Amino acid sequence: MIKKIIKYAILLMSTLIVSMMTYANEAYNPPLPLVAGDCITCHGTGGSSVGPATPIIASFDSETFIGIMEKYKNDERPSSIMGRIAKGYTEKDFIVMADYFAKQAAVRYPQKVEAEKVKKGKKLHQKYCERCHENEGNTDNDGTAIIAGQWMPYLQFTLADFYHGERDIPKKMKRRMVKMVKKHGEESLDDLIHFYGSQTQSDVEIEVEVEVEVEPVKKVE
Amino acid sequence: MSDDITRRKFLMATGIVGFCGLTGFTGYHVFLKNPLRPYKKPKDPKAEKAKVVVIGGGAGGAIAAKYIRMAAPEIEVTLIEQNKEYYTCFMSNEVLSGERTIDSLKFSYEKLSSQYGINMVYDRALGIDPEAKTVTLQGGDKVNYDRLIVSPGIDFKWGTIEGHDENVIEKIPHAWKAGPQTVTLRQQIEAMKDGGTVIISVPPKPFRCPPGPYERASQIAHYLKQHKPKSKVLIFDGNQAFSKKPLFFQGWEQLYGFETDHSLIEWIPPEDGGKIIQVNPNDMSIIAGEFEDEYKADVINIIPPQTAGKIAIVSGLANDKGWCPINPETFESTLQKDIHVIGDACIGKPMPKSAHSANSQAKVCAAAVVSGLQEQEMPTPYYGNTCYSVVGEDFGISVTAIYQLVDNKIQLVEGAGGPSPLNASAEVRKREVIYAESWFKNITHEMFN
Asked: What CATH code is carried by the domain that includes residue A80?
């Protein structure tokens, strides 16, 4: 009986030591995981891009992030470069990236907006977009991503892609977009862009100039 | 009676187990490893904190210094940089066309050094003593290190073209290190008459920034098209092929009449006599090709062949070709212990010599240095590069690559990356110009804030 207990004791002790050894040799984890290192050069420190166009990815919901990267990897979402980049990583990589960026607070730098457009855009948002892009675009509702404070040229590219059929658009969104443009004209898309672009922090000291003129989203002839 | 014996035995057994466990736990922690403490306490209480010295405050060095401090504030980091202000060579071609000012490329180290507690030493490193582990500065001081990261960029190999050396660079600029040379070249182009000729000489690979000379030709052509449309840019190339060639050709066809009678750009590869063998600064002419043809020009931009920065050469960090061999997992020199080389100066093949590569390598190197000093396992490295080139108005192109460490070599991830598609729409070409600007803004923000 004692022999058995001593055997178990030795087993327990060795397990304890082995587990401690594996713990001790745990890989060093840099504050910015190496897999996310190459994202920063375009998407900014902590994913808070300083613009003019690469989008802020800080504070993104990790499921949303992974979903987007998968879409880029499988060519299910158009891009100028992200499709090529996403193919270089595995799903495990996306999880590490997503986990990191989800934890970063987003800095939304000031952008040049036109007050009139912001005012119109706010109303349009309430009527046509708030349903899914809750809280004035500040809430990620099952993959809608955070659009409030996003870089305006990027919003323009995205809306243009949706509007011109370059990118898959959820049916609900298409219906509302068509209805909105029919009633308020194509300028309504710009009004929305200015509204989202206006939702930036006023306490940020860094001066960032948006040198890119945000082009209106027009129907391609 | 039997219950008491069982209970006693049980308690004794638990006691034995507990004692063994405690002994094992304590013994292991005290005598072997101390995994709960990230930084190993030196046995000598008078011992200094670990010191890392970085030579070079460019795309590699600034990032390495920052990321070490971010990871381990108990590690002292000294950044040796000879210039108080850094001019980015990346995007400097746009100064040549007038699309951007030289000041837009200028950055100071104040924010970076104060935010992260980096000791800035504005001096030039003259020599390294790998035994004594010191760096000797031009100003006379010696700096100690536990680990050294050398990120010196490039220096030029003079004398490969007859008549061309460092004494003629005011007349025949290289502008392959940004700053005053960039301004000189821009001024020469501005002063040129309409109908004049600009010659760019591209050295044989490897050199800093593979698409750079072709973006330069593009930007100059962009300026000439608007202001001096009868002029020409002649690229004398020491290489048969170059980065993003089909895309550049497409852009040049679309924007500059490439391969027509009134093309603003001509590309002369070695097989067509593109190798320049002599420069005559006094009468502003060059001699090129096997038939030794003479060409006169108003502006001559000779980009000389290159080597790793001088400090690497004189410190025994470079091979006989002038580039520094390294362990690709850690960027530690294979020639000198505890010295790491990153950026243009190192042999990082297949990564190109670019600012983005330097940035990527710096992060891996920082992780290697910190984990090494903390006696922890180096994490899996990831490397990447993205190069944007602005060919002209609303015409941007890019090439991107992701790499992994396979069999102790940096290997391209297949089926990923690559250049912009040849059949991309005009809208995408336009967006790539804006994304090029975004890359520039973000990488410099990362370097200097």
From this structure: 1.10.760.10
Rg (C-alpha) for chain A, rounded Å, is 23
Picking from B445, B67, B432, B111, the residue whose alpha carbon sits closest to that of residue A50 is B445
3-state SS assignment for residue B89? coil
Euclidean distance between CA atoms B117 and A197, whole angstroms: 34
Whole-number pLDDT of residue B22: 62
- Whether the CB of A22 is below 8 Å from some CB of chain B: the reply is no
A27 lies in a domain?
Answer: no
Q: How far is A5 from chain B (nearest CA, A)?
A: 6
| Contact between chains at A34 and B400 (C-beta distance less than 8 A) | no
The answer as to whether B389 is a domain residue is no
For the CA atoms of B350, B351, B354, B356, the dihedral, rounded to the nearest 10 degrees, stands at 170
Q: Which helix (H) or strand (E) is A177 found in, with range?
A: helix A171-184
Do residues A9 and B20 touch, judged by C-beta distance below 8 A? yes
Q: From A95, A180, A78, A169, select the one nearest A129 (Cα to Cα).
A: A180
- Examine the fold and report which residue of B273, B304, B335 is the final residue of a domain before the chain moves on: B304
pLDDT at A7: 77
CB B402 within 8 A of CB B384: yes
Residues 308-367 of B with CB under 8 A from A: 356, 359-360, 363-364, 366-367
- Whether residues B170 and B209 share a domain: the answer is yes
Residue B1 reports pLDDT greater than 80: no
Radius of gyration of chain B (CA): 27
Structurally, chain B folds into a number of domains equal to 2
B290 lies in which domain range?
166-304
The reply to whether A96 falls in a domain is yes
| Range scoring the smallest mean pLDDT among A125-139, A145-159, A207-221, B243-257 | A207-221
Convert the pLDDT of each residue in B225-236 to its tens digit.
999 999 999 999
Instruction: Choose from A7, A23, A28, A92 for mutation: most chain B CBs within 10 A.
Output: A28
Q: Which residues of B touch A84 (CB under 8 A)?
A: 400, 416-418
- Which residues constitute the domain of residue A184? 115-197
For residue B430, tell me if it sits in a domain.
no
